[in-house]
Amino acid sequence: MPGRLLCDSCLRSIPYLTTQFCPACDTSSVLGFSNHGCLQSSSLDQLYSVCWYRKQVVSLIGAYKYGHSVRAVASVFRDLIERATSEDLVFAWDHAVFVPIPLHPKKRSVRGFNQSEDIAHMLADIFDGCVDTSLVSRTKNTVSQTTLSHKNRKGNVIGAFSVHTHAGIDSERPYVLVDDVVTTGSTLEACAKAIKSETSITTINAFTFARG
What we know:
Family: Belongs to the ComF/GntX family.
Strand order of the largest sheet: 3-9-8-4-5
Helix content: 25-40%
Distance between the termini: 29 Å
Radius of gyration: 16 Å
CATH architecture: 3-Layer(aba) Sandwich
Protein name: Phosphoribosyltransferase domain-containing protein
Low-confidence stretches: none
InterPro entries: ComF/GntX_DNA_util-trans, PRTase-like, PRTase_dom
Strand content: 15-25%
Order of helices and strands: HEEEHHHEHHEEHEEHE
């Protein structure tokens, strides 16, 4: 149909994740929560992703970051996220605080927006939660993780985040980091570790639109 970003056939072929994976050992787990015995191996307690970083998903994310139809792409993202949201996840993240992975100010200035922040607002609407953009800032202008080998990605984000404690922190609520894509998990892990070391928040979950 003219004007649509994805036809019905493309929508049906979106590679949704049919299982989620433990953020520490990368084996299947319920809703992506850490498996028994893995809680000390990662700063992330849960990692939930909508779909695999393949085919149409790669194009969608590219269009979101660098295209000119941001609103149209955002509506597709919202629809796909809602399709992948289970009742169990709604219960687990009810009234959650969604924390978008921040861009460095220079990178944000060039792009004009942070797509992870947009996704966080979608999630806050779906889960009746809120967005906290003041908790974490990016103080190191890292090179894109996609340009690095898996071995070098962890070192690339060491010291990349600064945590800002504030009176609005409520450790009784679920805290969920939000990013567009996860591959090795190094960025999410570094951010979660920084938050846990500087605040009273003891549980950090994560959401990504795609998994590489």
